[in-house]
Design brief:
Blueprint: H1 4-11, H2 14-24, E1 32-39, E2 44-51, H3 57-74, E3 83-87, H4 98-103, E4 108-113, E5 118-126, E6 130-137, E7 144-151, E8 155-160
Parallel strand pairs: 2-3
Antiparallel strand pairs: 1-2, 4-5, 4-8, 5-6, 6-7
Amino acid sequence: MFPSSFISTMMNATEPVEQIRQWLEPLLTGDIFLVSIKIKPTNNIKVYLDADSGLAIDQCSRINRALYKILEEEGLYPDGNFSLEVSSPGVDEPLKMLRQYKKNIGRELMVQMLDDSQRTGRLIEVLDESAVLEFTEGKGKKAELKKEEIAFTQIKKAIVQIKF
């Protein structure tokens, strides 16, 4: 059995994330949107942003400076005992939002299904409840272009594949 102070602390763990989300919203201009906020036990705050037209480093820097100032002024972490990182999700980070899927139409995706099977193909369409992949099945003269609609509820993770 956990002590009530531990349970209370765990229940309040989402409060800083929600507070940061509220302070962040007015800073997100144009087509920039929030993907996620993570806070490590060391008070390391990681804010992941994206934008429909791509997110530039100067946009991340501007938002980082403004949010850092708010965090200091509001005293969420006494004595400035925190660090803040604002960036776009890395290339190896799974897609988390419908908006990210739409942004990546035309790109190659590796989709891991809930049953751990994998599908790889070009994302050609995003619907409200699913994504449509196009892929080649077979080789040579027997190669056939196919499409598969995959429900988001069946996707464990989807990662954009970078081609060089």
